[in-house]
């Protein structure tokens, strides 16, 4: 079959790689590079050329089995990285790094701070009690409601749990409390984040994440066309017609591996089901800067971590996240390379190396409901949808989504189709 793939993020790339073994596959990418959130930049710092990731950075083999298998097939190597987490509160001045006791109490005054001990007590309590929610089936309960009902302290919520969630999902603090509690806790449970021990070894791709993109493109017969946004997708009995740069191109099937809102804008005549399902998934735009301004890291170097979250001076202000790339990618340079989200107002413009915008899914009850309806929009008029947003938004979810679409396409070839 002739199959079009729209979007060259992890889901589109994985779809193309596996389908091109048996089909004629063409991938259309709107931007001028392949990879989507896999975004590696070659920068020169202190006279040294370095490859620095600014989108997808880390994974682990335990929770990313299909992505790890893809790397193995491609012959792409990875290396272990040190994962650590810090919080700086711009209003209270609190700073801590959760790596070890010395860094946890890098501000020695916290040894005599009852509120700090309350945060630690609630942290242990949350790790112990939260998994019990998985035995219940209450999707309507939000994370914010769960924390209030169970009397968790403000310092635990605002100076630990919300910053942690913001770092994981690149989301503003206000949206985190709207996460379905069951969904949030299941993610943390599945990723062994509700335990102080036996956590998985996190890894980074050697030479930058773009290494796997380059290897994939070399090892597939799929055709990749960048700088080519799809303007319209028309569906008919015989297949689909894509309009790209004003030119119409015909295919048997189309896989839309772009975000849900982007997919809707491409469809010439979306069905009521597509509008209902895709239109209920929202995305948050995040502004990214790769820079060398150490003011975005905690004031105390003992608190510097892989993930550094700054809590704004007002509760209504979203958390800002800064990833310390020297630590994450084992970069050998005297300059501190930092990836910060939504922090333009805090960064010295002269120290900015790269500026990008990314969009991340917002996880609320509406998104969760749409995820459960994926089958309803599968093979509607020869159209399939995949993307990490159908799961938790991570690289493994992107690969899983691609594999699910591939299975659905195989079923249509066997005569099992969605005729809704």
From TrEMBL:
Stored Pfam families: Amino_oxidase (PF01593)
InterPro entries named in the record: Amino_oxidase, FAD/NAD-bd_sf, Zeta_carotene_desat/Oxidored
UniProt domain Amine oxidase: residue ranges: 10-283
Gene Ontology molecular functions: oxidoreductase activity
Xref: SUPFAM superfamilies: FAD/NAD(P)-binding domain (SSF51905)
Stated name of the protein: Protoporphyrinogen oxidase
Superkingdom as given in the UniProt entry: Bacteria
